Amino acid sequence: AKMQNYLLSSSVGPEELPTLKELSTSEICKIWSGASRYIHRQLLQKTAVEIGVGTFALVPVHAGVEEGKVLTVERPVFIVNKHVRTFYNLECDETKIPDETPVVQLDFGEIAADTHFRREIVELCVHETLLCFAGALRDNKEVEFSFK
């Protein structure tokens, strides 16, 4: 799904979320856990994952360990897409992914095999969840989404 799909000028109605209506909460959680595991595996290989509204990546940060000593560590971050930030007027820290970092999309086939759902169900579930998020951003609602 292209990022433009998530720039909503009107609220998301239930007719735009048919898959989420059919799935139970635990099924949706299973699919996102699969997505989370996929992202984790990519990050371990120093690959960033773009999911339509933003990108999960490892970025170097400097941590002070003791007096005068600075250690560079890699921290996993989610960087909201520039178009999404602008469109929804979001304030986010300007974080840059290192140039040498390869970027991939979610592999719905791999996530489907891992979670035992059909590939199209996985793709639609992810797409509709992101639409839900975009709707919450549009309507200034507070959302919480935890990733393992």
What is the number of helical segments per DSSP (H or I, 4+ residues)? 5
Task: Calculate the mean pLDDT score and round it.
Answer: 89
Percentage beta strand? 15-25%
Overall structural class, as computed from helix and strand content, comes to alpha+beta
Radius of gyration: 17 Å
* Gap from first CA to last CA: 24 Å
Helix content: 25-40%
What brief labels describe this structure?
4-stranded mixed β-sheet; HU-CCDC81; 40% helix; CCDC81_HU_dom_2; alpha+beta; 5 helices; 148 residues
Please characterize this protein's 3D structure.
- Residues 11-89, 102-148 form the CCDC81 HU domain.
- This is CCD81 protein.
- It comes from Onychorhynchus coronatus (Royal flycatcher).
- One of its GO terms (cellular component) is microtubule organizing center.
- Pfam families: HU-CCDC81_euk_1 (PF14908), HU-CCDC81_euk_2 (PF18289).
- The chain has 148 residues and is of the alpha+beta class.
- The protein has one domain (15-138).
- The chain is 40% helix and 21% strand.
- It is built from 5 helices and 4 strands, in the order ααβββαβαα.
- It has helices at 18-22, 25-44, 82-87, 108-115, 119-138, and strands spanning 48-50, 54-66, 69-80, 103-105.
- Strands 3-2-1-4 form a 4-stranded mixed β-sheet.
- A hairpin with a 2-residue loop joins strand 2 (54-66) and strand 3.
- Helix 2 (25-44) crosses helix 4 and helix 4 (108-115) packs across helix 5 (119-138).
- The protein is globular.
- The two termini are 24 Å apart.
